Amino acid sequence: MRAVILPGKKEVQVVDRPKPVPGDGQVLVRMRASAICRSDMSLYYGGKPLVGGEAAKTGTIIPGHEPAGDVVEIGPGVRGLQPGDRVAVYLAIGCGHCTYCLSGYLSLCSQWKCVGFDVDGGDADYMVVPAQNCLKLPDPMSYETGALLLDNMGTQYHAQKTLGVSGNDTLAIFGLGPMGSAGVLIAKARGARVIAVDVLDSRLEMAKELGADVVINSTKEDAVEVLRELTHGEGVDKAIDSSGNPAAQNAALDSVRKMGSVALIGETSATTINPSEQMIRKLLKVYGIWIHPIWMFEEIANFVIDHNIPVDRYITHRFNIEQAAEAFRLFDERVTDKAVFVWD
């Protein structure tokens, strides 16, 4: 089979690998869609991976933690799946027995492994995965949409459910890459007034196309000042930072009204804040949001279908696996919004 590996220093190789064989409790999935995520760039650049252990540092793991495809073979002991099932592959593999695994938060397991970082992911013709990680796609849902629900749309849904975003809210979203684009779609479906903040006009234009009510280029305007003007001097009800940029994280904290709430999604190693002024004296609620629990996938899928959310509208580029070098380069250069490998 053909597979992508990322040795580091922006090198991309498409190599031949043996087709994997499912073991006990595992299934073989033929890929139909596998999305590129910003966290994949840590493998693309090399050095310290964003997640994962020693295996992620070797440059030999097949990336791709947002995959969807068809079950083609099941290993011994598998129940509830059969060849022909259409599935998305949940990215966190846990021990299955600890408190976090039993509550569905597999990524909080002390022994967890990440698909595409610790074990081979979906940027290949086939992948082997534990059967419990295979989440059946509803009949009306495309493989591409199913793949984006695993991390991109799923994380935003998790964030906005945690914040309780509703039609009563004005929500500011900082960072309009693929994660922020997903946030606009989810927030509009929940009925919120959405204000999108970014530094690139192209991304703000996409946000408008997806339904954002107002867009702000923070290189041209003081985003916090504009957000206060748009909310009668009070500040927005809720904010989400999808960028991981320290300036945007601070702007999110500054722009929210007293007793408001903020969700931080974008990852960064260090940010300097003023807890007294930005949080304590505002009675602000601040949430760190990571991977949604595995049981939430069905809820997310139903939400997308019931609200007819056009997830594929922010997929701007599709590639075959042989075009992997171009795909990662364009994604790195922020030419694309969401980019997806597809198979016929």
Automatic annotation (TrEMBL):
<keyword id="KW-0479">Metal-binding</keyword>
<comment type="similarity">
    <text>Belongs to the zinc-containing alcohol dehydrogenase family.</text>
</comment>
<dbReference type="InterPro" id="IPR013149">
    <property type="entry name" value="ADH-like_C"/>
</dbReference>
<dbReference type="InterPro" id="IPR050129">
    <property type="entry name" value="Zn_alcohol_dh"/>
</dbReference>
<keyword id="KW-0862">Zinc</keyword>
<dbReference type="InterPro" id="IPR011032">
    <property type="entry name" value="GroES-like_sf"/>
</dbReference>
<dbReference type="InterPro" id="IPR002328">
    <property type="entry name" value="ADH_Zn_CS"/>
</dbReference>
<dbReference type="Pfam" id="PF00107">
    <property type="entry name" value="ADH_zinc_N"/>
</dbReference>
<dbReference type="GO" id="GO:0008270">
    <property type="term" value="F:zinc ion binding"/>
</dbReference>
<dbReference type="GO" id="GO:0016491">
    <property type="term" value="F:oxidoreductase activity"/>
</dbReference>
<keyword id="KW-0560">Oxidoreductase</keyword>
<dbReference type="InterPro" id="IPR013154">
    <property type="entry name" value="ADH-like_N"/>
</dbReference>
<dbReference type="InterPro" id="IPR020843">
    <property type="entry name" value="ER"/>
</dbReference>
<dbReference type="InterPro" id="IPR036291">
    <property type="entry name" value="NAD(P)-bd_dom_sf"/>
</dbReference>
<feature type="domain" description="Enoyl reductase (ER)">
    <location>
        <begin position="8"/>
        <end position="341"/>
    </location>
</feature>
<protein>
    <submittedName>
        <fullName>Zinc-binding dehydrogenase</fullName>
    </submittedName>
</protein>
<dbReference type="Pfam" id="PF08240">
    <property type="entry name" value="ADH_N"/>
</dbReference>
